[in-house]
């Protein structure tokens, strides 16, 4: 009787019209993506035409057996949730006939599927909107490194796993030369393995696993990892500088090793002889001389470093002199300086002698040249004087002869001349 009265009231209130309403604000492709354990809103908003009344809205979920009723809202009787959905869902609006969107409080992966928003209107009948819900999960991932040993054959160096919906993608960020192999399962799990031939130069190199997924909007998730390669020690001895002398104190030798892992055991020995008294080996690889050095400390010392994968051996030849090298160097330097000064003085004296000799030679040469010039000048003057005398005598003789042959008158003329 109540239903009949409700229908009669609707007939009286809403006259018959020939237009229909429509769904508005529909999601793209009628699909919604949501995250597990998050609140999800399935949109449904029916816009009735004028004089059209939404009487009831019901949500259904598709199952293998048909459609499972979730919740309904009547414009007079209110809301009702059904079965297992009770307490998990509600309408997004206090007036479901205006905004019929469905809210799932905590979305589960099992909620994924197709949902129908069924609208009963008067007087134009029923309208349906189907929404597909896809539930994503944030990836759960891990990286498992492997400790390798130098010399091993080609093998796995690390593995990375991830599980998510939809299935994630995995990749390796590294400069190492190797190969990766991926494997996936239907439940959204995927694994990847990275393999290579281990060498000591690879130790400590980056081998990161990257997880790619639509939920990781800031970029891939990075699992940082550095490759670990164990190798035997590569030892050497330090501490000897070549200036060990009798009486020197606080002398020590150190066994330095670069193996991986670091050596924890060191052994010292001296070839052909036992370690001299007063020498103390320490666990860190140091050989301490707890007394002044003596000539008997000379010899070849050997250090053996050992780690989990092998041993490394290093040797050093020690020579202990009677005197410090600085003293010997000082005496030698003094002798060299004295020698250099002596040679310098000799060279200076030689230069002075050569300079003086050259000066005297030049001076003697000049004096000789001047003497020669004077001699030549004197000779020239003597010759000219002799020539004048000869010319004078000859002139006087001719004059006397001519005087006897001339007349007295001519003689007087010549005399006047």
Automatic annotation (TrEMBL):
GO terms for cellular component: adherens junction; membrane. Residues 1-21 form the signal peptide. The chain crosses the membrane at residues 335-358. GO terms for biological process: heterophilic cell-cell adhesion via plasma membrane cell adhesion molecules; homophilic cell adhesion via plasma membrane adhesion molecules. Residues 15-132, 214-321 form the Ig-like domain. Keywords: Cell adhesion, Disulfide bond, Glycoprotein, Membrane, Repeat, Signal, Transmembrane, Transmembrane helix. SUPFAM superfamilies: Immunoglobulin. It is a single-pass membrane protein. SMART domains: IG, IGc2. Its main location: membrane. It is found in: Membrane. InterPro entries: CD80_C2-set (IPR013162), Ig-like_dom (IPR007110), Ig-like_dom_sf (IPR036179), Ig-like_fold (IPR013783), Ig_sub (IPR003599), Ig_sub2 (IPR003598), Ig_V-set (IPR013106), Nectin/Nectin-like (IPR051427). Pfam families: C2-set_2, Ig_3, V-set. PANTHER family: NECTIN-4, NECTIN-RELATED. Belongs to the nectin family. This is Nectin-4-like. It comes from Hippocampus comes. The lineage of its organism: Eukaryota, Metazoa, Chordata, Craniata, Vertebrata.
């Amino acid at each position: 009787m109540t239903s009949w009265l409700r229908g009669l009231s609707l007939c009286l209130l809403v006259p018959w019209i020939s237009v229909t309403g429509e769904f508005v604000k529909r999601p793209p492709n009628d699909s919604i993506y949501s995250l597990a354990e998050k609140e999800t809103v399935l949109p449904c908003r029916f816009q009735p035409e004028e004089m059209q009344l939404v009487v009831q809205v019901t949500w259904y979920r598709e199952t293998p057996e048909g459609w499972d009723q979730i919740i309904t809202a009547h414009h007079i009787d209110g809301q009702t949730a059904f079965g297992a959905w009770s307490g998990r869902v509600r309408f997004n609006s206090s007036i479901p006939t205006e905004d019929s969107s469905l809210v799932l409080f905590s979305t589960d992966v099992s909620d994924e599927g197709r949902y129908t928003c069924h609208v009963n209107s008067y007087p134009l009948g029923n309208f349906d909107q189907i929404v597909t819900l896809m539930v994503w999960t944030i990836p759960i991932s891990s990286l498992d490194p492997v400790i390798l040993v130098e010399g091993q054959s080609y093998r796995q160096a690390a593995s990375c796993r991830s599980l998510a919906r939809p299935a994630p993608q995995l990749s390796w960020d590294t400069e190492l030369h190797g190969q990766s192999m991926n494997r996936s399962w239907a439940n959204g799990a995927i694994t990847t393995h990275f393999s290579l031939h281990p060498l000591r130069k690879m130790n400590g190199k980056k081998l990161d696993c990257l997880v790619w997924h639509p939920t990781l909007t800031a970029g891939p998730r990075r699992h940082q990892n550095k490759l670990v390669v164990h190798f035997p020690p590569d030892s050497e001895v330090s501490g000897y500088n070549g200036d060990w002398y009798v009486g020197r104190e606080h002398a020590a030798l150190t066994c330095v090793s670069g193996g991986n892992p670091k050596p924890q055991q060191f052994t010292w020995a001296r070839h052909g002889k036992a370690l001299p008294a007063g020498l103390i080996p320490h666990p860190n690889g140091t050989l301490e001389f707890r007394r002044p050095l003596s000539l008997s400390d000379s010899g070849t010392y050997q250090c053996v470093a050992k780690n989990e994968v092998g041993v490394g051996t290093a040797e050093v030849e020690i020579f202990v002199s009677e005197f410090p090298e600085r003293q010997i160097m000082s005496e030698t330097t003094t002798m060299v300086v004295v020698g250099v000064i002596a040679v310098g003085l000799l060279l200076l004296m030689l230069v002075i002698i050569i300079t003086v000799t050259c000066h005297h030679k030049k001076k003697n040469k000049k004096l000789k040249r001047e003497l020669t010039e004077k001699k030549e000048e004197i000779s020239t003057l003597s010759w000219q004087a002799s020539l004048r005398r000869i010319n004078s005598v000859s002139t006087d003789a001719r004059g006397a002869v001519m005087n006897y042959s001339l007349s007295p008158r001519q003689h007087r003329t010549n005399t006047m001349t």
